[in-house]
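hey so i finally got around to running the thing on that chain from the lab meeting. sorry it took forever, my laptop kept dying and i had to restart like 3 times. anyway pasting the input first so we r on the same page abt which one it is
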Amino acid sequence: TPTAGSYTGGTLALRMTPPGLDFEVNATRTDGGVVEVLATGSLPEAGPREIRVTQARFDLADDRWMLLRPATFRWTAGGPVHVDDLELRAERSQGRIAIDGRVLPLAELDARLDVAAMPVGDIQGLLGQPVRVDGLLWAEGSIRAGAGDPFLDLTFRVDNGAVEGVALSRLTGTLAYSG
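ok and heres what got predicted. didnt touch it at all, straight out
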């Protein structure tokens, strides 16, 4: 794929026995990188839905990222998506991503975020976006969107990066808002 690399091979195993779901993806990129995901879930026609990702491993830039423990995604039809215990770590660096809370829709975001040594330029590239901010991101805090009571309390740092092509050794800051 243009945004996630070229793959020499892959398999997708999907078994749906309503309401049950078993899902497995294994793929190898031409550069030797891998993508592996194993999940189970319950997707009834009505009521609460849940997918539990039990294993995940993928290569991003020069490191392999792995799910530390099972993570759960919960939602109802037309309702928000909640994530519980999502934590990914890089094998060869300090890289880490942890997210807990309501993540979709973004207009209703209410989550705790903890990120360490995340290669932000690579993420933008994987999403098919031009790289506007590059470097390694550290961020920690809480975000709550919405018209009722928006809130943002986030500290961040970008090391060895660039913003719109302007090089910087370190950019630090705090974002705080309560409405």
